[in-house]
Structure formats: C-alpha cells, structure tokens
C-alpha cells in the first residue's frame, strides 16, 4: 500500500514524539554507577553508609528517600557521593532503594541480623563487678556520647536494670553490674530511630532485644588486706559463708591453704602461711570456688636503724618495708580486739626490746635495761596449717636483720660549779648521755592496751601497793641529793640543769620529812625495762646511775622574807 508524502511525514513526527516522551519516563531501578555498602549485614538501629555518585543535593524528606525492603529509613546524611541512614526497626532482609525525585536507584541488598548473646563471663557475679558479654551482631556504639544517637542509646539490661556499657564491640560488651540489679536475665537492646510516616524525624524509639541469658548473683566479699608478709591476718567480710565450716571449705593462696582462725556466716579470719607465694586468693565454699583477689606476699626488709649507738632507754627506730602489723596473730577480725602479738618481737643483741610502735614501714623500740651490743633482729611469727586448714602443723618465725647496734654506757668527765644557789645553772660534761626523753609514763607502757580501762587508784609515791606506784616517771634525769633538777639542755656530751628548790625547803612523803638536804651527790641516770620471761611488758623500771660527785646547794636566790609578811600591795593603804 502506498502512502503519500504528507502521511509519511506525519508518521515520522509521531514516532519522534514517542521516542522523546519515552526518554522522559521514570527509569525504575536505574543504577548509573556501583554503590558500595559499609556493611552487607546490620542490626536495626545501626548506621549504614552508601558510597557512590549522582545522589545529588538533598532537597527534602519527600524528594529524597531511602528504603530497606520497602521500609523507610531515617536519613542521617546526604551528600552527592555519600548517604548515611539508620537501619529501620521493622526492616527485613531485602533490597536498599534510593529515591531522588522520581528517580529510583537500586543500591543493593542488605541482610538484617539480630543481636545474639553466646556467653556471659562469669556466670555468677558480684554486684559492682564487670560482666563480659560475648556474642555477635551487637553493632557499634559510643553510648550516650554518640552525636548521631539523639533518640535512644544501645544498652544492656541486667536483672531489670538498664546499664551503660564500659566497652562495646560488635562481638563483645563489658558492663559493670549495678548495685540494685536483681537476679534475672541479661539481654542487649539496640535502639532504633525511625522516621515518621511523612519522612520527618522521628518516631518513638524502639528496641530490638537479643536472646535472654540468666545471670546468678553471689554476695560480695571484701578482702582486707590483699598484701602482706607471712603471718598477715586476712579478713573476708561478706555473708552466706555458712554458720560453721564444712570439711571441704577453705581459703587458698594459689593452691596453698591458709590457716583458718575463725569461720562465721559473715566473716572469715585466716593467716598467710609459711612458704606462701603471691597468687590468686581463692575461697572454697561448698561446691563453689571463687577467686576473690590477687594476693601479694611481701618479704620484710629493713633499710636503716637510728641511732647506731646509744645508752639504755633510747628509742631505736627501724625503717624499712613490709613489717606487717604487730598484733595480728589472733582470731578476731580487728587487731585491737584481742591484741594478740604472737611471737612478733625485736631483739637487740639477743635481748628482747620493748615495742613502742610497729607499723608496716617503721618499728620503734625502747632499748631494754639488759640490752647488749649486737645485731638488731626482727622476728615475725607465722605457721603452717594442718591438712584440714586448722592450726597448726608447724609454728615458726621469719627473721629479718636490721643492722648492728652498740650499747653505750654514759661517762661523766666533769661538772661545774660544785656548789651554787637556787636556779643557778650547772653544766655536766661527758660522753654517752644519749638524748633527753620528753615522754612521761603516768599510764605506763600499756597505754594502747589499757586506754579504755578506767583507773582511779593511781597515787604518786604511794609505796604500800607496788601495782599503783608511778614515781620516777621520767627516764632521763639529773638528781641533786635525790631531788630532780629542771633540765635546760641535754646532748650526748653535755647536760645543763638548774639547781632545784626542794632540797632547801624540805622533801618527804607520808610519815617522814627531811627539812635539809642541801649537800649530797649529783647523779645522772637513765631508766629502762626488760621484757618479762613470758614475752609481755614489762619488768619494774631499772636505773643506770652515774655519780658526778658531791654538790652543795647554797642559800642563795631565796625569796625576800618580807614578801611573806607583807604580800598584799594594798595592805598599808586606806582603800
């Protein structure tokens, strides 16, 4: 069939229009370039990054859209070459489409995964301890500081209590168990921020939960201390230990049993045994075995002693480390309750010294009356338990050498004057006087042990009952015919004192009085004690006395006798 030229021309125009209009029709699932995903599988609420080209500039939530298997996602960022979205809560595995105006781009496919807990470590835990959760598909989070998580934060629920993580990785989470958590399930929650139906932000936050894993709580146990030398008293404070110890119960450092001194439902008292080495401190309570702490076993070390030579009664200082506590051999939780020192002691030349202060880094002792020159040794008592953990298969001491000490005997070389009036100064020269002790002993050396015992029976110079005599309370003194002088200065080589008044005025006690003691010996003396044979303190004070020679107190410096007859300034007035 033949068509005219005009008809053919018209057909050509129509075909051109069809081709032109076809070029304007939407290109469904057009994909101009390859688009890369930051991940091919993600849980809801995670951020997905789409990298490519030709995305254009963001216009509005109506013109620019991203869907995951048909579910609209919240757009976090839109650049011509990068788009970031939040995986929507109700999304399922399927294609990711990008809408730019009427153009729709098929970006690829995304697999939706759910968080899964595989294991909890430990399976029994104390409140306040760190719980490790291992699994998969937890995603990543910066917690409450995440600037992109404005509505909802990924978290962990423990026993009904929401907690914030300490560390969060896709396969591992570490979280501190809160104090108010109850026994129950643990699960991970992933927050999702989805857009509203009109594409704007934001619908109420929703959470995808992982599988629930039960967690058991065990009572917290406080260990005090967690370091010390052998013999150290270690106390476990807690509950549900049992009102009585069962045969299999025990406390161990590594695999070495500790000596059990007391076992109650809320407290256990043990001692670090001989031969112990640093390691985990383990509580075996029934069928449960718990590591409570890492215990460090120290070795006592002495660094210096001061002074290196001195007379009796001197306070000798020993500096060092890891001496432990003095009175910790007892079975009570607190050392002062029974003040059991065991066999802890210090010896000077083989003679036990009087303990004045015993700290972990410093020991002070009084040089005893019977001290001898020689080594200063620190002895610390310890034991080895029987197979059942009770005391004791062996008792012994750990010896630590601190240094050499020389006991000095004071020597008087001269004194002047040999006679003087009241309050005049007398100078005594010599060697080995030591230092002047400013402490008095009205409460005796047992102050730390007897401080809470009321004593009303003390009388000065009352000799009928030796238990109450506290005369001669000083341990460094100068006597003029038995009366103490006021010390002005005292060095190792020179002592300066004032002549006392009492000798001229008279001195005495109940039942006897001496009204003139002006002439008599001038002596220097130092006092000290010895430890009793049973190791307790102390024997009666004993004195080392050195006589300088005779001294006469002259009747000088006495008050004007007129003062006693007219001691009121207004006595001769008319007022």
Description:
By secondary structure, the protein is mainly β. Strands 11, 13, 14, 17, 18 and 19 form a six-stranded mixed beta sheet that branches. A hairpin with a 2-residue loop joins strand 8 and strand 9 (103-112). The longest helix is centred in the N-terminal third of the chain and has 20 residues, at 5-24. The chain is elongated and about 125 Å long. Mean pLDDT is 84; it is low at 1-5, 7-32 and 450-471.
> Could you give the count of β-strands?
48
Taking the alpha carbons of the first and last residues, their distance comes to 164 Å
Report the average pLDDT across residues: 84
Instruction: Give the helix level as a range of percent.
Output: under 10%
Uncertain residue segments: 1-5, 7-32, 450-471
Q: Any idea what the radius of gyration is? A: 45 Å
Figure out the total of helices: 5
Summary keywords:
5 helices; 575 residues; five-stranded mixed sheet; six-stranded mixed sheet; single chain; disordered N terminus; elongated; mainly beta; 6% helix
Write the layout of secondary structure elements.
Elements: H1 5-24, E1 36-37, E2 41-42, E3 47-51, E4 64-68, E5 71-72, E6 74-79, E7 82-86, E8 94-100, E9 103-112, E10 116-121, E11 124-125, E12 130-136, E13 155-158, E14 161-163, E15 165-168, E16 172-176, E17 184-192, E18 206-209, E19 213-217, E20 222-224, E21 227-228, E22 233-237, E23 250-253, E24 256-257, E25 259-263, E26 267-271, E27 279-285, E28 288-297, E29 301-306, E30 309-310, E31 315-321, H2 335-338, E32 345-348, E33 351-352, E34 354-358, E35 362-366, E36 374-384, E37 394-407, E38 411-416, E39 419-420, E40 425-431, H3 447-450, E41 476-480, E42 483-484, E43 486-490, E44 494-498, H4 502-505, E45 507-509, E46 512-514, E47 519-528, E48 542-553, H5 561-565
Parallel strand pairs: 2-9, 11-19, 21-28, 30-37, 39-48
Antiparallel strand pairs: 1-3, 3-7, 4-5, 4-8, 6-7, 8-9, 10-12, 12-16, 13-14, 13-17, 15-16, 17-18, 17-19, 20-22, 22-26, 23-24, 23-27, 25-26, 27-28, 29-31, 31-35, 32-33, 32-36, 34-35, 36-37, 38-40, 40-44, 41-42, 41-47, 43-44, 45-46, 47-48
